[in-house]
Amino acid sequence: MNWYGIKAIYIHEMERFRRTLFQSLASPIITTSLYFVVFGSAIGSRITEIDGINYGSYIVPGMIMLTILTQSISNASFAFYFPRFTNTIYEILAAPLSSFEIVLGFVGAAASKSLIIGCVIILTANFFVDVRIDHPLLMMFFLILTSITFALFGFIIGMYAEGFEGLQIIPILIITPLVFLGGSFYSINMLPEFWQKISLLNPVLYLISGFRYSFYEVSDVSLFTSTLTILTILIGCIIFITYTFSKGYRIKD
Amino acid sequence: MKNILEINNVTKFYKNSVKALENVNLDIKEGEIFALLGPNGAGKSTLINSICGIVNFNTGTIKINNMDIIKNYRNTRKITGIVPQELNLESFETVWNNVNYSRGLFGKKPDHNYIEKLLKQLSLWDKKDNKIKELSGGMKRRVLIAKALSHQPKLLFLDEPTASVDVELRKDMWDVVKKLNEDGVTIILTTHYIEEAEELSDRVAVINDGKIILVDDKDKLIKKLGEKTIKIELVEPIEKINGNLSKYNFTLDQTNKIISHTYNLNSNTTDITELLNDVKKDGYKIKDINTEQSSLEEIFIKLIQENNNELVRN
After folding, report:
1. Which residues of A touch B52 (CB under 8 A)?
2. Could you say which of B223, B246, B278 is where a domain stops?
3. B220 vs chain A: nearest CA distance in angstroms?
4. Do B249 and B173 lie in a common domain?
5. Which domain holds residue B280?
6. Residues B97, A7: C-beta atoms closer than 8 Å
7. How many domains does chain B have?
8. How far apart are alpha carbons B314 and B310 in whole angstroms?
9. pLDDT 10s digits, A138-153
10. Does B108 lie in the same domain as B254?
11. Alpha-carbon dihedral of residues A194, A196, A202, A203, nearest 10 degrees?
12. A126 to each of A56, A129, A209, B128, B160, how far by Cα in Å?
């Protein structure tokens, strides 16, 4: 293993995060605060509790998931697309690094950034509502696994994007709607039966549900299904990246 | 001297079926400076990128230090460095971070003493804390060289190292390249500037339309394909060339005072002593004699034109 190579990519990416620390952290903190104001105060005044949990507290896991998903994707996709855009990718391709090591460096850094932001959101949420974490290890398990999985997904976008606009299309048009419709701010039990069934087709629902279970022991679907879903997406991303690298598509052609 | 690089029957197609390299065979000897000449789009960069692992090639094998660059990519890439044609650098990073980052990528543990020495050698030390965007084009080019040398490679590829730099800096770069070679680094450079190849290289290859059309020692090439022109300035102007001189294919210039004859360096068809005797026999008085030898550039243009004509015929 080229550990120095992995470390170089990781440190290089984290350094970029450090340089833009204010923007990186201010945005999620402000967004989270706005969600609490809009959803917590406005809607929370009408929906006081869901599954016996105060509405403001209930939406915390969903908000964290929303941020983790979007940040993991955007961090990883930008991190890999940027050297492609500036042509500095030549150096990574010419270095004695396997595709696994390249992915480990970029995805590791993107996931780390997301985890830091996730922790900041948990702290921010504490200023607005009581946040209880019944299963901290399980919470960390979901947090880490989701960060890595969606950083891998972002990496794929970074490999295929043909412009900066391309980096935004999937997060805006697919991920954000899926998170909003995946029970971030409500339980699917509140929906009519037909929409409940439709919601079950949304993979993000399983992530949010499992994550929420680690906080309050309430969930829309079983913990096993949630874990299986995130692992399936993770393996899917790994296979896709491995295939793309083996073909050199978009990078070495 | 052993080969540090062996390229056998390498062919590369781009996605749109454009053939970029066709059955390229080339051996590079350890310790030499090798110049790869060719017009735009000839396949110079594609060949270098294929060797360095930046693009995939379709068929053939490439070995560095007798190791296959695909099967043994870790070992071959560790000893290979590349300076790309464009100034591909992260503008917001400092020189120091940029160079150390490159060393890390190539699997070497940090060595601040070596990087310091390298930056001093390349006159970059006082710029080490500057961001790349604050540097001039020439300085950026030096940073690229520093990055390529950060892991102490044995084989260095310079893709158009002096493209779009001024004459002074170009000469400066040549000194850097010569110094590196003296330190034991084998150098392969691509260039448009024939004078660069003429100044630096031990051997030269000419690539056109993805094919290597010639590989030879630079001096031998100049001797083999080069031509020499003898120009004789006469004291009195003449109307036309006749008498003994008519057998030499002389041309007369506009002043009617300078007669010129071009001959191949490698052929024995022109005996200069006999030629001068014939000038004397015809009663011409010589004011001055001057000879000019064709440059590598003229040879290069000739070769490319011949190759293109052959391609058209086929």
Report:
1. 90, 93-94
2. B223
3. 34
4. no
5. 227-293
6. no
7. 2
8. 6
9. 999 989 999 999 999 9
10. no
11. -150
12. 10, 5, 20, 44, 58
